[in-house]
Amino acid sequence: MVGTLTPPYYAVIFTSVRTEGDNGYAEMADRLAELAMNQPGFLGTDSARSGLGITVSYWKDMESIRCWKAQADHAAAQRMGQEKWYASYSLRIAKVEKEVHFPPAT
């Protein structure tokens, strides 16, 4: 789980339903996680899967998100996702203006 971030920042919310089988998904997911960590403006990620997968990545600004979308390996993974990894997905981008934690950060 991502620790405390200083708003404002952006959240890219990716919800998905996977197709059957791995089909190279895990390897690509590991590769993209490594690449994202080195992408300018990347702040972190949270993820959960239980039938419906939810991944939220956090970014400094919209320009950082645009650059990540255009990154060559990420663009290839997007195509693969549509072709074989996802039965369906949704992507939402939101500006985070406030965050609250429990227990409160010290």
UniProtKB/TrEMBL annotation:
InterPro entries, A to Z: ABM_dom, Dimeric_a/b-barrel, Jasmonate_Hydroxylase-like
Membrane spanning residue stretches: none
Sequence ranges assigned to domain ABM in this UniProt record: 8-79
The protein's name in its UniProt record: Polysaccharide biosynthesis protein
